[in-house]
Specification:
This protein is α/β, with parallel strands linked by helices and about 350 residues long. It is built from 14 helices and twelve strands. The strands form three sheets. A five-stranded parallel beta sheet has the order 4-5-6-7-8, with helices on one face. The chain has a four-stranded parallel beta sheet with strand order 3-2-1-11, covered by helices on one side. A three-stranded antiparallel beta sheet has the order 9-10-12.
């Protein structure tokens, strides 16, 4: 059992929190403090300043410190096959993506942000089956995308080393946790870490608790939200929810992190609406391109789907079509974080009670 259970620091996502774009970075920090949250995780530094204005970035950092908030930032796409989808990075690099990333690393580390979010691909949000996820692109194999990502990260490695920084690769829908660990081993734990998003790992057929245990030593940042799973003819479907409103075992997740000596901030990634994703377990094409699939974890997802469906029938869980209101109030939208934070703190309290 863990001997150190820290106080949970719960923060907000600087891109998805309600009214984030309207408020802007500094007012968003102030709203975060008003709601008694602990910090803000901006996806990329370009969300804060598209021009990397050092004076403004310093002002954002100063305001975060005045309010006693953590401040986290990121970089963006690290898969060269996806870089055309991030023209803003090439813009700050004067047409050169690597130089753009270098400038972003310089800017973020100047204000003390050294664990920098990155992800390996996009989720295209098309209805065309597997091809909504870049793992299943037909113009380039996923293995080639991973190899290109590794080579790009090795080019960035000296820059990251010079600034004592790491890229925290998100557990996104297209990549398995085993593949992330392999990237870390190939490039170096001094260069790569993890942004843990457990709602995404289930799309790859992975159990959230087992995935956390695999990645726990490398976790630097988090995107926290819960999920429910339910049966569909193709396999399962995932819906994301506030922490505590789904089926993830948060005591087991936190215990795995703390046992590994990882104590990240817990940033809640807001969602609202029908945020669903297919997990086509019965599709032979899906199966063929899941080299890291573990039968026990797939069976655990099926078990969790039954737990949820039993809960809906018993009236203890809300059915997928009834969970999100059509015209949510601001209190409902912001309450997603408040409820999630309460769940994580309760899980930490339960762990303390076991010591």
């Amino acid at each position: 059992m863990t001997t150190t259970i820290p106080e949970i620091r719960v923060g907000i996502d600087g891109r998805k929190f309600p009214r984030a774009a309207e408020l802007g970075p500094i007012k968003l920090l102030e709203r975060c403090a008003e709601l008694d949250h602990a910090g803000v995780f901006f996806r990329t530094v370009l969300d804060v300043s598209p021009s990397l204005d050092r004076g403004f970035l310093a002002a954002v950092k100063q305001r975060a410190e005045e309010l006693g908030l953590y401040l986290e930032m990121g970089l963006g796409k690290i898969n060269p096959y996806n870089t055309p989808e991030a023209p803003e990075v090439r813009e700050v690099g004067k047409g050169d993506y690597l130089f753009g990333m270098t400038r972003m690393i310089e800017a973020t580390t100047e204000i003390g942000c050294t664990a920098l979010w990155g992800d390996t691909a996009n989720y295209q949000r098309h209805d065309w089956g597997l091809h909504a996820i870049d793992r299943y692109r037909t113009d380039v194999d996923w293995s080639d995308q991973l190899d290109a990502t590794r080579k790009f990260l090795l080019k960035l490695k000296p820059v990251l080393a010079d600034h004592s920084a790491v890229i925290a690769v998100e557990t996104h829908e297209e990549i398995t946790t085993t593949e992330i660990v392999q990237l870390i081993e190939q490039v170096g734990a001094d260069t790569l870490g993890v942004t843990l998003d457990l709602a995404n790992v289930v799309v790859r057929g992975e159990d959230p608790v087992a995935a956390t245990r695999r990645l726990a030593p490398y976790v630097k940042k988090t995107h926290m939200r819960d999920i429910v799973l339910f049966a569909r003819p193709h396999g399962l479907e995932r819906q994301t929810r506030a922490c505590g409103d789904g089926v993830i075992d948060w005591q087991a997740v936190l215990g795995a992190l703390f046992d590994a000596g990882s104590y990240p901030n817990f940033t809640i990634e807001n969602v609202w609406g029908s945020d669903k994703n297919q997990i086509p377990l019965f599709d032979p094409d899906w199966q063929a391109r899941q080299p890291d699939a573990v039968l026990g974890e797939i069976l655990e997802l099926i078990r969790l789907s039954r737990v949820f469906e039993d809960g809906v029938r018993a009236g203890t869980m809300i059915a997928p079509d009834d969970y999100f209101s059509t015209n949510p109030s601001l209190d409902e939208l912001e309450g997603f974080v408040t409820r999630s934070g309460a769940t994580l703190r309760a899980a930490a309290d339960a762990l303390r009670a076991r010591i």
